[in-house]
Structures
1.
Amino acid sequence: MPPPGPLPVVAAVLVGCWTVAAVLLPQLVGWIAEQILLASGLHQPVWIWPVVSLVTVVAVGVPALLLALLPRSGAVRATGRAWLAGAVALGVLGLLRMIPAVHHEAYLAALALVAALTAVIAARLLRADTTAGSVGRDGTAGVTPLAVAAGLVLLLPWLWLGALGGLLETVLAALAATAVGVVAGVLLDVGFWARFGAGRPTRPALLVLGGGSVAGVTLLLLAAGTGHSGAQLAMLLTLPPVGFLLGALQAPTDTGGRPTGRAPVRWLVGLGVFGPLAFTDPEEVTLLLSTTRDVPFWVMVTAGVGLAVALVLSVGYGVLLPRRVPGRRFATAAVAVLLVAGTLVYAVPGQPGLHGERLLVVLRQQADLRDVPATPGAAGRDARVREVYRRLVDTADRTQADLRRELDRLRLAHTPYYLVNAIEVDGGPAVRAWLSSRPEVDRVLVSQRLRPLPAPAGTSRGDAAGPTGPEWNIRMIGADRVWSELDVDGSGITVGSSDSGVDAGHPTLAAGFRGGDDSWYDPWEGSRSPRDRSGHGTHTMGSAVGRDGIGVAPGANWTGCVNLDRNLGNPAHYLDCLQFMLAPFPPGGDPFTDGRPERAPHVLTNSWGCPTIEGCDPQVLRPATAAFDAAGVFVVAAAGNTGPYCASIDDPPAPYADVLTVGAVDRSRRVTEFSSRGPVPGVAKPDLVAPGAGVRSAMPGGGYSVLDGTSMATPQVAGVVALMWSANPALVGDVDGTRRILRETATPVEASPPPGGEATSTCGGTANVAGAGLVDAYAAVRAAGV
C-alpha cells in the first residue's frame, strides 16, 4: 500500500486536532455548567447533555465524513470512518446522561444495553472485520494476554485510590465496560489496523504512531460519551493513550500476515473503562467537595497516574513487541501475577468492600401529634418531649413490624427510624420496585453514601486573628448589651447542633460542652468524643454559644451530632442526628428504647439543607420538624446560599413553616446577594435575617476564621432564643410565642437590589427577601421578660 500524499495527511491532522478540541471543550463546559447550577441551587435541565452531544456530533461528524469520502488514501479514509463512527457513538451514549445521577445503577444498566446494541448495529453498517486473526508459531498467541496485562496495570491506580459502590452497581459497571469494549472492537477492527500497516513488520512506527493516534482520538470520542457526568472526565485523560498501546499490540505479525484482531481491543478498552465507571461515584466528582483533598482531587490524581502508566506502557510495548512477542505462557503468567498484585493493592492500601447507596423507605402512616398538650415552662416542655417520643416510637414499631420481618427474611440489612416513620434498606432498583409496591410504603428515596478516601481529607484550620472583644455581628444585634445591661448570657439553656461536628477542645467552646454520655453522636464514624475536620460545625457552634465575644449566648451549654461528612449528607444521617436531638442516647444505644427525651436540647441550630443530589425530596423531613414543634424544641434553619434568585429557599428543612428560617445581611445591614429568597408556597420565608458576611468564629485546633453564609447567620438567631429562654424560663417550650417576639422586635433592613440582580431582587416583596427584618437580641430579651 503506497503511503498517502502530504495533503490528505495534513487534512487528517487538522481534523484530528479539531476533533480533540470539539470534544474536550463541550464536555468540560457541560460539567462546569452542571456544577454552577448545583452550587446555585437551580434546576438542572435534562437537555444539557443531549445538546452537548448533538453539538459534538455535528462539529466532529462533518469534517470526519469528508475525510471518509474524499481522499484516495485508504488510511485517511479509515481515519474518517473511525472518527465519524466514534462521534455517532458519543451522540447515542451521551443521551443517557439524561438519567439523573442519583439513579446511577439504572444508568449503568442502560449504558450496557445501549452500547451492546450500538456495537451490533455498527458492525452491520460498517461491515466490520471482527475476526480475531490467525495465530502463528511466532508467538502472537500471547498478544491478547498482553492486552489483558496492560489493562490490569491501568486498573491498578483505581484499585489503590478508588472505592467500589454496591454489588449490583459494580456488576453493572463491569457489563457496561464490556459493552463499551465491544464497541471499540467494532470501530477499531482488523480492517482499520490493516490500513496502517498491521501485519507488515517493516512499518511498526506508522502503526504505533499513526494508527495509535487515530485510535486515540476515536477512544476520546468514546470516552466522552461513557459514564455519568463527572466520570467521563477521568476517561478523557486515561483512555486516549490506550490507542498507542493498541497500535503496539497490532504490530506483531503471524505467518498469515494478519493483524492480531479484536480481542486485544476489547480487553484493553474494557478494563480501561471499568476503572472510572466502577471506582468513581459521579455525584462525588463535584465542586462541592473540591475545597479539600476529597474525591475530585483523588480522581484527578488517579487519572494522572493512569495517563502516565498508559504512556509508559505504550513506549515499552511499541519498542519491544515488533521485535519479539512473548509466548502465551509468559503472557498468561504476567496476567496471573498482576491479578494477585491487584488484589493485594485493593485489599491493603486500597479501600476494600462495597460502598453503595442505600434506600430510604418512607411509610404512609406518620405519628399523630396534633393533640400533644402545649404545656409551657421547662417542666412542661420535658413532659411534651416524652409524650412525642412515646407516640413516635409506638407508631414506628406498630407500622414497621411486617416490613422489618420481611426484610429480615430476605437478609436485607436495614435501619429503622421513628422521627420520620421510615426504614433505610440495602438494595438496588429491583428492591426499590418491590418496596414501592407494598401497601404500607408511601415512597422510596435513594440515601446517598460517600465512598471512602485513600487518605483523610484533612482538617480545616482558621488563619484569622482571634477576637479582642465582642465581634461586630454581636454588637450589631445587641447581644453584648444583653450580657452587660440585662445580665443574661444563656445559662440554663442547651443548644444542639447537627453539622460537621464540633471541636470540643477549642478554648471558646470547651467549657460549654454539656458532657455526660448522651451529648455527642457520630453516625458516620462512631467517634466517642466531639471532633470536627471540616470546621463548619465548629464555626457555627462558636457563633451560637462561643465565649470571648464570638457567640451570642456564651453561658449556654451545647450538644453536637455529625450529619455532614466532607460537606455532604443523606436523609438517613440527617434523621440520625435529629433523632438524637429529640431523645439523646448513650454510645451504642438503641434510639427506639434507650432515648432520653428529657435530655433534649432546648434549641437546635441547623446550618444545612438536604437537596435532591443527597436523596431528599421536599417533604421527607416534614414529620421531623413537626415533631420538634409539638415537643416544644425550637428549630432554627439556614435559608441557603443560592440567592439572589427568587424561590431559592427549597432544600429541607428551610421551607417548612414550623422552623425559623434565617437569611443573611452584611455590615451595612443589607441582605447579601447570596442569601436565598422566597417566596415559598403557603408561608413567608425567610423569617428573619442576621449577620452572615465576614463573621469571625472558632475553627478546629484553636484557630479562627472569617466566613460568609446563611450558615453563619443561623446560629446567632439560635443564640438569641437561648438568651430569651434563659431570661424567662416560663417561655421555654413556647415556640409560637418565641417566634412572634422575634418577628415583632426585628429591625428593618435594606433589601435593595444586589449588583446585577434587579430582575429578581424583590421576589414579590421585602418579606420574601428579609423576612421580618434583622434579629434584635436586646429587644427580644426585653420583650421576653427578664
2.
Amino acid sequence: MKRLLLVVWLGACLLGCSSDTKELEAPEIGVSLELAEYRKSVLSGINYKLEFRVPEEFGRQIQALEELTFNLEDNSRDLPLDFKVPQSHLKGLVVNGKSQPLEIVNEHIVLKAQNLQKGYNKVEVNFWAGETSLNRKEDFLYTLFVPDRARTAFPCFDQPNLKARFNLTLDLPTNWSAIANAPVSLARIVNNRKNIIYEESDLISTYLFSFVAGEFKRVTQTVNGRTFTMLHRETDEEKVERNKDLIFSLHAASLKWLELYTGIEYPFKKLDFALIPSFQYGGMEHVGAIQYRANSLFLEKDPSQNQLLGRASLIAHEVAHMWFGNLVTMDWFNDVWTKEVFANFMASKMVNPSFPNINHDLSFLVRHYPSAYGVDRTQGANPIRQNLPNLNEAGQMYGAIIYNKAPIMMRQLESLLGEQAFQSGMQEYLRTYGMKNATWPNLIEILDKRTQVDLKRWSEVWVNTSGRPVFELETINNEGQVELQLSQKDVSGKNRAWPQSFRMKLFNADKKDRKELLVVSADQPYKVKLGAEWANFEALANSNGMGYGLFSSSYSLLVSQWERLNEVEKGSLLINMYENLLEPGFIGREGQYKPTEYIELLKWFLMKEKNQLLINLALGQLRSVYWNLISEDQRANLAPDLERTLLHCLNDIHEDPSIKKIFFNTYSQLVTTTVNLQRLYSIWAKDGMVQISGLNLSENDYIGLAEDLAIKIPERAEAIVVQQLERIKNPDSRKRFEFIAPTLSASATVRDAFFETLKEEKMRETESWVLAALSNLHHPLRRDQARSYILPSLELLQEIQQTGDIFFPTRWLDQTLGSHNSHEVVKVVDDFLAKRPRYNEQLKMKILQSVDMARRASQILDKTAKK
C-alpha cells in the first residue's frame, strides 16, 4: 500500500513539474506548417557553425561537428530541431552546457524545455553527417538541400523563413577543390589534409546553404571588375576552351542587367559556380555557389540557337535568383513558384540583348506554352499557388505550372500594369523585403497600388485555380452584317474567366485582306462588327502569343497564308493546331485533321521553314504524334517517306551545321526502316560508308546513337554496347553508360532484372542515369513488354518522393508512362488510384498529369480507327 501511494505521489509530482515547462507531444514527421509557424514566432539570430570531415575512403562516414546558436523568446516548451537520419548518427548532444540523451523522434532532435533558456542558447552536436542530399561519389560530392533536405545532412531549423548565417569548415583530401556560399578565410594543409575555413555567410535559408568539393579543375576569370571561379570535371580541354569565356561573360552580363533593373547592387559576398556531371537539375541557385548540369553549359560543336539561348537563359535564371529567392525568399514553400516565376520572367527579359538575331517573343511562346498546356489540359492540373501542410511534400510544388504557366501569368500582369509600373513595384518589393521573407499577397498589395484593376480578384483565378479556358469563336451573319464573337468557356463548370488581352488576326478569303484586332477577354464575350465583305474569312486567335487557353484553329491556314504569317503567328498556329489535335472529342469535326494528316502537314512545314525555334517546335510535335497517336500499321506505311523527308532536310535543304544536328537527332530517333537503320549504323560505326557533310557528332552524340541502335537492332545490341563502351573517353560518361547498359539488352530477362534493382534506393542515387534507363525500358518499340513495369513503378512512387530530389517523382512517372498509348496502361493507372482513395493528393496529381498522353492517345487511336 505504501509503495502504491509512493508511486501515486511521484506521478503527481512529475505532473506538477510540468506547470512551468511543457513537453510537446511527439512532433509530426517532416516539418509541419504548425511547427514552422511556432518556431518563426520564437526564434531569431540563428547561426550554424559546421565542420565536415570527408575521408579519403569512399566507404567511410563523414564526421561532422555543429555549434548552433539562437535567441529564444519562449522556453516554456520543448523545441524540435530537424534531423532526418538514423538515431545511430548522433554521437553527442549538449544544450547550454547540459548533456541530453541521444534520441531522434520522428525526424527531430527534441531540445528539452528544461535545458533551454530565454535569450541566447547554444546547442553542440557531434554526429555522422547524413548523406541523402550530399550526393557523394567516389571523388566528389555536392549538397542539394532544396526544399527540406538540409535536415538530412545536419541538425537544423529547416524552413525558409528562419534565415541564418553559416560558418563552414571543410576537412578534405589534399587533391580536392571546393566552393561554398562565402569566400575562403583560410586554407591550409594540416596532417596531409586540406583544411578550408570560410568566412561567415550572408543571411540565407537552410535550403540555400551549400558546398561542392572533390576532384574538380578550377578556372578563375575577372569580367567587368568581378572575379568568378568555376569548378568542372570535363576532360575535353577543347570543349572547355570553346565554352568557358562565354560562360563567364554571361554571368557578368546577367549581374549587370539585374543591378540596373532592380536598382540594387549584387547583395552577396561572391558568385562562383560548379559544373557537375549528371546534376539533377539544369541549375540550382545556391548563394555564391551556383550548381549547374555540366552539359547545359559546356555545349558541343555547332550548338543550335535553342541550345545557345537555353544556356544563356539558364545562367540568367540562376543569377536572377540571387535577388528573387535569395535576397527576398518565400515565407513558406507554397510560394516557391514566386522565386521561379521571377527568375524565369527576368531571364526572358535579360537574354534579349545578347541574342539580337533571335525572335524573343517566339522564344517565350515555344519555351512556355506547350509545357504549361501539357499539365493544364490534364485531369491532374494544379494551380500555381497550392496548399502545403508539411514541407516533406514541398518537392511536388515544382513542375511546368510554376516554371511555364506562371511566367505567362506574369507577362499578362506586366501588360496590365505597364512595364514601368511593374518595374517600380518589383523594386519596392525587393527594398521592402530584402534579406527577409515575403508572400505572393505581399507583392500583390504593392502592385495593387499601381493599377485600377482589382489585382486580388485577378490573381484568384490566375494563381489560385488550375486549368485553362476554352475559347469559342462564333460568326453571326445578320442581314449582311457580320459580327464576330469570341467567348471563354470554363470546362470545369465553375464559370471562371481568365482576364487577359491578346491579338487576333483575320484573313479575308475573298479579298486577300487582313485585319488585326486587340482582344480584351474576361467574363463577357468579345464582340466586333465586320463589314459584309468579311463574310468569308479565317481567324488566327492569339496571333501575338499573349493569350492563354485552347483556341479554335484552322489547319488550312498554315498553307493558305504561309507567306503572310510572321514567326510568332506560325508558332502560335502550330501550338493551337497541336492542342486541338490532342482533343479526342474534336476528331471528326469539320476541318479537324487526323494525326496522319497532321504528320503530312508537319513534313510540308519542315521542308519550308528556316527558323530554328519553329523547326524545333515542329520536330517535337512530329516525334509525339509519330510515336503516340498513330497505329503500328500507320507508322509502317508513313516511315519510308518520313525518313526520306528528314534525310532530305538534313542533307540538301539546310547548310547550317546546328540545324543539321537538330534534324539528325530527330531522324535517328524516328528511323525504323532497315535501309535507314543500316545508314545510321554506318555513321555510328565510322566505317566511311555513309557521311553527311557538315554534320559534327560529339562523344555524347555517338553514345545516344548507340542507345537507339541497340534497341532498334536487337541482334547487334550486345556488340554495339561493348564497342561503344570501349570508345568512351570521359570517365563520368563511361560510368553512366555502364549503368544503363542492361536496359539496352535484347533480352527481356536482363531488362527485368535491371528494373528489379531500381527498387533499391542506392540504385536510384544518380537520378539522371535512372531516367535514361527508364526511357530505354519504355521505348515505344518495347511497349508490350514494358507494361509489366508500370504497376511496380507506381507502387514505388511514395518511396521515391521521400528519398529522391524534387523533380524525380514527376520525371520517374513521365519516363514510365509518357511513351505508352494503350487502354491497358490507362486502366492500370486508374485501378491503382481507385484502390487507394486516400492516396497522397500531390502524387495523385502527378500521376494523372503523366498518364494524360496515354489516355488521350488511346481514345484518339480508337476514333481514327473507326473513320
